[in-house]
Amino acid sequence: MPLDTSTTYPLTRLRLDGRRWNELRLLQAQISTNPASSGSSYLAMGNTSIMCTVHGPAEGRRGEAGGGAGNAAGAVVEVDVNIAGFASVDRKRRGGGSDKQSSRIATTLKAAFQSHLHTYLYPHSTISIHVSVLSADGSLLAAAINACTLALVDAGIPMPGLLCGCTAGMSGSASTARDPKNDELDPLLDLSLPEEQELPSLTVGTTTAIPVGEDAMDDDEDETMKVSLLNMDAKVHYTYLETMLAVGIDGCTQIREILEGVIKGSNKIVVPRSDIL
Amino acid sequence: MKSLRRDFSSNPQAANVSSKVFVRSTKSGKVQKIVRELYLRQDIPCSSKLCSICPATAPADANGNIAPFVLSDRPAGTASFPRGHYLVPDTNALLNGMDLFEQTGAFYDVIILQTVLEELKNQSLPLYNRLVALIKTDEKRFYLFFNEFRLETHVRRNPEESINDRNDRAVRTVARWYDEHLRAATRHTKREKMVPSIVVITDDKENIRKAKEENVTALSLQNYVAGLEDSDRLLDMINESREAKETKGARGELFYPEYYSMSKMMTGVRAGTLHQGIFNVSPYNYLEGSVNVPAFGKPLLILGRDNSNRAIAGDVVVIEVLPKDQWKSPSTKIVDEEAVTKNDNPDAEDNEEVVTERERKALQEEVKKAHGKNSEGRPQPTAKVVGIIKRNWRQYVGHVDSGSTGTQVNSGRRQQNVFVLPMDKRVPKIRVRTRQGAELVGQRILVTIDAWDRDSRYPTGHFVRSLGELETKGAETEALLLEYDVQYKPFPKAVLDCLPSEGHGWKVPASKDDIGWKGRRDLRDLLICSIDPPGCQDIDDALHARPLPNGNFEVGVHIADVSHFVKPNNPMDLEASVRGTTVYLVDKRIDMLPMLLGTDLCSLKPHVERYAFSVIWEVTPNAEIVSADFTKSVIFSREAFSYEQAQKRIDDPSQKDELTQSMRTLLHLSKVLRQKRMDAGALNLASPEVRIETDNDEVGDPLTDVKTKAMLATNSLVEEFMLLANITVASKIYSAFPQTAMLRRHATPPPQNFEELTNQLAKKRNLELDVSSSKALADSLDHCVDEANPFFNTLVRILATRCMTSAEYFCAGAHAESEFRHYGLASPIYTHFTSPIRRYADLLVHRQLASAIGYEGEDGRAVIEGVSTRNKLEDICRNINYRHRNAQFAGRASIEYYVGQALKARSEKMSVGGVDSGIEEQGYVMRVFENGVVVFVPRFGIEGVVRLEDFLLPGESVGGSVEERKTLAVRRETDFDSEEYTLRVWEKGQADPNRSVTVELFQKVQVNVSSVKEEGGRGAGKRKVRILIMGSEK
């Protein structure tokens, strides 16, 4: 039986993969990995690795839900998530349709990007995102968000800023109120699979708000953050929520810097942000 | 297309990412390959107070705190390590010597490696938990070093290298790194000369050799301990099994069959050809075990040591049913290990047989009996143990068998094998190697079992510690507590910190605006009183009753509001949930909650305001319940009565005040309630209980302290209303939490449990026991009376109680609603609500009820806590069921011990010329065996085995020492009739009916009870209660 975080973390302040509480896993990403698509990316957060391709904006096919010629207001985002049978420890045979986990991720991603992208620029069209999970080792939703963002940037679809996702958890079950005098639990950033299975966690996705008015002229790096996605399946006493959120948002900021580095480092010409506005 | 290969070159951090790949197999037999990332770093501190480098880089937790450094700058040393040392044990050292590491005299400044901790967890979860507890305590200075994550000490497994070799290498690498690191950290400072040695402790010879090559100091546990003071005592605490195996090598024949492989067992169990269950041993015959398996209604018998194949009572075993020609009937004989294997030599293994000739003979006789005239004793299916799923070994309390210490008692440091006889009769004697054989004789000691190999007849174990002289009060009490796993250590500071800071000065807030009053009803004007046993300090409950204008009554039960003081999941709550219950011994109470709460702040003492949780009913004069209401409240108890005082006050016609009137109302209502309950089929069960009053001083006969419990009407007054409160609360919390309500059930016993008793009653008394329902049973128990023998009815009730299953806590989702029934109380639903000071279940029920009625508590947390998860509750249920049972056993054992001591004290006072004449009492025969009977003596609440030699034949006198009587046994002849349950005993060759004694089941016999100490021989120094049968009355 491997060690568990809730026992050893208080003793050593180290997590089971050797990280401190506020450290991300190694994040590596590439864009334009698949020239056959409009945009594509590959992203690995630790041992979680994801490939994402974007097709479109393309003319919506008739008869598709919400798509087709009907939607004059803007493009419809379609998300398809496929978790490979070899992605987790036990190889799973997946018959045809998607399972519960992947359809939940797909729904969340669709909702997040539908409202995030400037879809009004593309009426009567469809943007379809395909996410392939090659290897799952925790923080799946967060990694998928980041991969999608990169692929969408690669496809040149306008958005107000990068949408970045990250998970945050607590180093114990956190089922009762926090005792400020004797605070034993630390928040943890970017959970791996064993941590996710053991501890409560949430996924938060942030983006930079669109600078308006005076702020628009500011070239201030200290941007205001906007939470555009928040997802939690675990039970946590509400007194811990603020800590977890703060750590998660901080993680998102770190991830944004890395993703920006990836975009700037690629040979693809990216339109500087200030020019969009 | 770009390559998707992970590109480490571009990322400077990536160089420090390694990965760990391992393979594990799951329970279902699947093999999984696990890949984990490892982030190597250089900021993991060495945690030595000597170090000047690490404090600068030591990282902080989320609150900016840096963990204090653990390892002392002046560690203790030994003669060979004058500058002191830090110890680095490997896994085997911990496996073999965990008891040593827990010592207070030695083993400080220990570095526990991650590698070792992980390996230990894989090998033994209990040891892992003990080690984690050690790391958490400050005074032992154990530091958990995550070596696998430190760049310098991370070790990659080489190809062809076994995992053990790799782990050993990791340990050596750490030792070397520590040494270099500390030298570097102290270079050119004053502390340069203070660098302690790093000592690897390992039992692996190869490891020691390699360490020498690499210039790392390594010692075996033995060698290290030998250099310490007090090494004799410490050396005894090393686990024996490994060492023994090495020295013994391939020598010796194998006495026991090999166990099946795990996969073979699992396949068999799944296919239904093998069965899994818990191994139980008969208290009367150590060679007879039984296993209850789900496939059959009745337990399967396991006879003899061959078949029980090294299983010890409590182990989870896999068994195989034996062919039909080996089926036998359960034994009709009392077989005591001490008696049968008296002359075994703990050192001799060569001529050892698993089944000694005498044992074999004892078994054969039984088979003969079983196959002879069995009309009722039909052979029953027997089985043999083929494997062990889980050992349930714990630490056992026992004493050294003085006969086994050998002749050279004074041989000093020489190691010798001795036998330790556990207090628990169901556990075989344990072979222990010790250097202090002579000192240990006559002491209560604690030992653990290390192993039981195929080539050893008895399990081998090692000495843990001595509790003190046999028969001293302290040692025996501690032995009892250890044996029944009662947590008796004083409450740790973390728990005491949870108490209100005001201490005894805490008061109910005067102002009703205070937050403590939130959601509470003011019931201070009600005339509330409590009725408890005399001298009761932890008053859980109080009552009141008053007439209502409509002719009905308002009745209230007020329970101490413990949940106000014990908040969920704080250290005090966790401690209480582990303890589960308060344990009452004769002269000691081991509290579940600290004294301050139990006997003061929560206790509903008279004349002070207290927080309470109240259940208030409106009842008609016929005790029909009109409505029930639950509320948190503040009460002011007017008086605390003892049962006698209350009874006197009620009976005294001159008392006409309101309080007395309300008590009379309560008494009246309770009688109606009781009648209703009886009509519904509640059982009036009996248990052999005596009470001991210890306040008497040395004067007079010590036995006067032993009193049988008297039942007053006021006892049942309190009892009825508590039952009513429990039932009312049970339905309330069940309706609020259908999945997680904490309830208590008493399963309907299967009719076959009563088979034997029914048979016995029919045969001996021509009485019928109808067990079809609790009502039928209650009625037929009422008919079991014997005009000449008023105790007969109680005796039958005691026996009937033993046929039933015990009541248990459970959480509502675990059973179907039809299974909730409490059989004994004939109530469809039941829980425990009324004693939160002494039972954890009640405390949980309080929280659930508070949540069910929407009480928010001072900070709104109560609501959330009521809805605990079911898994957690089920764990708690398991624990409190276990604790509850053990608390009962411990209480009974304590009384038994006290009775024995009282008898001893009496015999010392009364004996004439050194011969104790004993005390004459009446006893009743409970069971008849072929070579003895079990007699119950109600006066002392004890039951005991009466062997053949303890039957006084006509014309014999009481006198004679134990040894003299023992010689009689071989001259006795018996005639045992298993169908009529009679046993006739006579002297060899004198079968004259006038010179023989005949006893039969249920018979009243005149007995002589005394306390004797065995002298000489094996059981020396052991005191037990001896019962002699003097003659019988019809």
UniProtKB/TrEMBL annotation, chain A:
A Pfam family per the record: RNase_PH
SUPFAM superfamilies named among the record's database cross-references: Ribonuclease PH domain 2-like, Ribosomal protein S5 domain 2-like
Domain Exoribonuclease phosphorolytic: start-end pairs: 23-158
Entry superkingdom: Eukaryota
GO annotation terms (biological process): exonucleolytic trimming to generate mature 3'-end of 5.8S rRNA from tricistronic rRNA transcript (SSU-rRNA, 5.8S rRNA, LSU-rRNA); nuclear mRNA surveillance of mRNA 3'-end processing; nuclear polyadenylation-dependent CUT catabolic process; nuclear-transcribed mRNA catabolic process, 3'-5' exonucleolytic nonsense-mediated decay; poly(A)-dependent snoRNA 3'-end processing; rRNA catabolic process; termination of RNA polymerase II transcription, exosome-dependent; TRAMP-dependent tRNA surveillance pathway
InterPro entries xref list: ExoRNase_PH_dom1, ExoRNase_PH_dom2_sf, PNPase/RNase_PH_dom_sf, Ribosomal_Su5_D2-typ_SF, RNase_PH
Family: Belongs to the RNase PH family.
Name the record gives this protein: Exoribonuclease phosphorolytic domain-containing protein
Organism listed in the record: Penicilliopsis zonata CBS 506.65
TrEMBL record, chain B:
SUPFAM superfamilies on file: Nucleic acid-binding proteins (SSF50249), PIN domain-like (SSF88723)
Name of protein: Chromosome disjunction protein 3
Compartments, record wording: Cytoplasm; Nucleus, Nucleolus
Principal subcellular localisation of the protein: cytoplasm
A Pfam cross-reference name: PIN_4
Family: Belongs to the RNR ribonuclease family.
Gene Ontology cellular component annotations, sorted alphabetically: cytoplasmic exosome (RNase complex); nuclear exosome (RNase complex); nucleolus
Residue spans of biased composition, Basic and acidic residues class: 336-345, 355-376
Cofactor(s) it depends on: Mg(2+)
Domain RNB stretches: 520-855
Domain PIN: 85-209
Source species of the chain: Penicilliopsis zonata CBS 506.65
Alphabetical list of InterPro entries matching this protein: Dis3_CSD2, NA-bd_OB-fold, PIN-like_dom_sf, PIN_dom, RNase_II/R, RNase_II/R_CS, RNR_Ribonuclease, Rrp44_CSD1
